Amino acid sequence: MTEPIIRASYDDLTQSLKELTIPKHRVCIVGDSHTIPLYLDRIRAACQPVFTEVHSFMWQAGEEYKNLDSIRDLIGYLLKLGFDRRDCLLALGGGVVGDMTGFAAAVYLRGIPVIQVPTTLLSQIDSSIGGKTGVDFDGYKNMVGAFHLPVLVYTGISSLSTLPEDQLISGMGEVVKSALLGNADLFAWLRDHVQEIKDKDPAAIYQMVLDTAKIKTEIVKADPTEQGIRAYLNFGHTIGHAIEKYKNFSLQHGVCVGLGLVAASYMSMKRGLISKADLEEIETICRAFDLPTRVSCLDSDRILTITRSDKKMVNGRIRFILLKAIGQALIADDVSDQEILDGLTYIMEETE
């Protein structure tokens, strides 16, 4: 696995592409109706000195398009162009675009190279790294997918200057999650730099993306196919994904992860793994970044049922990720239904 390249802008993208050890034949830049208008000209200009041909393809933006029909449309386009194994795809966008483009690259001709150029905070620190690709299926998130490592991940921090506020908040859900599971110093740093981050101070954003991406990179290197500690990255996701599906994807992914990590932190506290003060500190930092710590109108039993379809089930039980300390996660294979219901009840309480 290659290290992500994190830069202030896209100025070094051409050179990074030249250094790839893949054939420099044709590339298809794949984005959505948000990213293509904003970035296509810039990324195409970076690709033209490297590849013999530069093509582009656009999906409609939105989680509702993250399905096999959209993959079919892209593959049909590649077939029309006659793309072969010397050619590659470049994912230009957030997590949805990155997941879908990576999946298409994994299955087209049994695998062609993919380059990830993430444009959202969430994708820059999480989804573009590690080669997990996939699409949703019948409402179940990322249920169809493959591991397909990108040959390059190039992050230009400048793209975050155009990021809508709700997307920044969503990304912070994954940032807080990463600090909680793997780096107590980063958690403390986030607490001390809330305003700089919310103001999108370039130096603070760069440091945050660099440190957060490093957590995922190191975990993925140690466990590329999620046989062990890579499961830590699912902290907050079991309940988060269930809420996301229950709410019909009306809530941002990172917001749901934030709710899930609060529920999981409460469950950790009830087991005596972390203190009440730790839980309060976790909730405080979530609220500081405008992540909700409570949610209304949930059917706990329905949420519990949805968790049973989680792809992280092992022998009929959920591999649930809890905290043993801020900055340290653990895998729990013995989480009961009642513990999950208790966690859900906690995040449905009225905010004090």
Question: Which terms would index this structure?
Answer:
352 residues; alpha/beta; Rossmann fold; Dehydroquinate synthase-like, alpha domain; 2 domains; 6-stranded parallel beta sheet; two-stranded antiparallel sheet; 47% helix
How would you portray this structure in words?
The chain is α/β, with parallel strands linked by helices and about 350 residues long. It folds into two domains: about 160 residues, Rossmann fold (3-Layer(aba) Sandwich), CATH 3.40.50.1970; about 180 residues, Dehydroquinate synthase-like - alpha domain (Dehydroquinate synthase-like, alpha domain), CATH 1.20.1090. It is about 45% helix and about 20% strand. Helix 4 links the parallel strand 4 and strand 5. Helix 11 runs antiparallel to helix 12. The model has no long low-confidence stretch (mean pLDDT about 95).
Helices and strands, in order, run as: EHEHEHEHEHEEEHHHHHHHHEEEEH
Number of strands: 12
User: What is the highest CATH level, the class of the largest domain?
Assistant: Mainly Alpha
State the separation between the terminal residues, measured CA to CA: 45 Å
How many helical elements? 14
Mean pLDDT: 94
Strand order of the largest sheet: 1-8-5-4-2-3
Q: What count of structural domains?
A: 2
Structural class: alpha/beta
Identify the CATH architecture of the largest domain: Up-down Bundle
| Overall morphology | globular
| Low-confidence segments | none
Name the CATH superfamily classification of the largest domain: Dehydroquinate synthase-like - alpha domain
**What's the alpha carbon Rg, rounded to whole Å?**
20 Å
Output the CATH topology of the largest domain. Dehydroquinate synthase-like, alpha domain
Helix content: 40-55%
